[in-house]
Amino acid sequence: MLPANDTALFPTRHDRDRIDAALTEALADAGERMAQGPVTPRLDLPGFRRELAAFDFSAPQPLADALGWIVAQMEHGLVHVNHPRYFGLFNPAPSFPAQCGDRVVAAFNPQLASATTSPVAVELEAHVIRAVARRAGLSDGAGGHFTTSGSEANLTGLLCALTAAHPGFAAEGARAFPGAPVFYVSQDCHNAWIKIAHQAGIGRGAVRYVATDGSGRMSAEQLARRIEQDRADGKVPVMIVATAGTTVAGMIDPLVPCLDLARDHGIWGHVDAAWGGAVIASDRFRGDLAGLERADSVTIDAHKWFATTMGCGMFLLRRPEQLGPVFQLSADFMPSAGTVVADPYVTTVQWSRRFLGLRLFLALAAAGWAGYADHVEHAIEVIELVRAQLARRGWQIRNHSHMAVLCAAPPPGSRAVRDIVQDLVAAGEAWVAPATFEGEPVVRICCTHGQTSAADVDRLVAALDRLAQADQQAADLKTADQK
Ligand SMILES: *Cc1c(COP(=O)(O)O)cnc(C)c1O
Q1: Distance from the CA of 152 to the center of ligand 1, in angstroms?
Q2: pLDDT tens digits, one per residue of 61-111
Q3: What is the DSSP secondary-structure string of 167-188?
Q4: 3-class SS at 397?
Q5: For strand 440-446 and strand 405-409, is the pairing parallel, antiparallel, or unpaired?
Q6: Which of 151, 188, 251 to mutate to test the pocket of ligand 1 (most atoms within 8 A of CB)?
Q7: How far is the CA of 307 from the centre of ligand 1 (A)?
Q8: Cβ-Cβ contacts under 8 Å for 340 (sequence gap 6 or more)
Q9: How far is the CA of 73 from the centre of ligand 1 (A)?
């Protein structure tokens, strides 16, 4: 006889409905409280560790209890990206359609390695990718796929570049090249390129940092010079990466000269638009990305400015057939073995694969490009408001970017940026980051929340300005708020 199913793992429909309803309510209540409370809750980490240690998994406990416990811990133990005064890194308050997408995917749990077993999901993702590629201005026939992250998409770009650069790379790796392969990024690029060079097996030294022009954009002249110098030294340039929307300052490298250089040298041209790529939704601002269409490949994260839940990157490329030589193999246990279908497992880094793209599909279906244009323009307008208010109070705006991120230096004689930011975050009033832009310490303020209001901007600016003054501390800020 078979042992009985474990009802904790697989509860009855009745029990699931009951737990589901309680969870939905608990999450909604926590969300409401969270938006009214501090952006950075005060966590009792030793206390949390003690409670966590009590879970030694020796005896089961009701799922409802564990769920109630973890929701409460999350409410008090995280920086809240869902808070309208989180002016932080590119982590969005996720859209509701995207959250619905997560639920649907969890329920069906399709395996996207193969189109044979998950045709609806594979077709749907390809449809969304084509729509995004078209919107980005890539030519008909462009394609690509969803990735778990911008880093995975960027890694895919580098692997394509290496494979296209030398026919021996697939079999022999970096040894195939007559000299060390190298690639070019701006000094303000995302740090993950270091890990990507390491993962690709060409070594961290393969990353060539090109100086910026004083305004946070890669200098095309310096880039040309570095390539010549490397060639003269026997190195093998394989790729130029232009960043469209730098992490610190939202600057856009000169796309046309960078991508023209890639074409002239016969090497791969990649645009890393992990965050900034979302401006393709806005007719007002998409012109900022002119030149994108010349790229061999482009990275755009849906889990940044497109506000899906975490783990939703996109790799777009002009000639999708170039993925084949990178990821091809045959596995006779796979359902499509022997067929000619380009299954995701032979065109991407991953094998087992989550249905990543449904979240962006549902959000696009519900809001349309127009809804995303509003979302992008709202963030830009919020930052314009911050910019104007800080400038009025004598702060200096260092970056000149349309994108929704600001690098602001406090007026001369103010407290150090690091202290201002630390006290602001400690008070829980708002979340911003300390950063360095063109060699100068700045407060980095980015709008990532779809519902940040003018009142939120007022509170941010008032708190920043107060904390910048030499004799102010976070404690003063709190007393001021309580009055
Ligand atoms: C966020 C970001 C990355 C890394 O993407 P992940 O999704 O965090 O892996 C790379 N490049 C740029 C420009 C980014 O903004």
Answers
A1: 9
A2: 999 999 999 999 999 999 999 999 999 999 999 999 999 999 999 999 999
A3: TTHHHHGGGGSSS-EEEEEETT
A4: strand
A5: antiparallel
A6: 151
A7: 14
A8: none
A9: 28
Confidence of residue 334 (pLDDT cuts 50, 70, 90): confident
Which DSSP letter does residue 92 get? P
Global pTM value? 0.95
Place of tokens 């409802």: 64
Residue 89: closest CA among 98, 76, 97, 80: 80
CB 48 within 8 A of CB 72: no
Q: CA 133, CA 293: separation in Å to the nearest integer? A: 9
Residue 209 confidence class, pLDDT cut points 50, 70, 90:
very high
Q: Which two tokens stand for residue 253?
A: 């490298």
- CA of residue 300 to ligand 1 center, whole Å: 8
The candidate with the shortest Cα–Cα distance to 200, out of 216, 223, 182, 214, is 182
Lining residues, ligand 1, CB within 6 Å: 90, 149-151, 154, 190, 192, 243, 245, 247, 272, 274-275, 301, 313
Within 10 Å of residue 350's Cβ, how many Cβ atoms?
Answer: 17
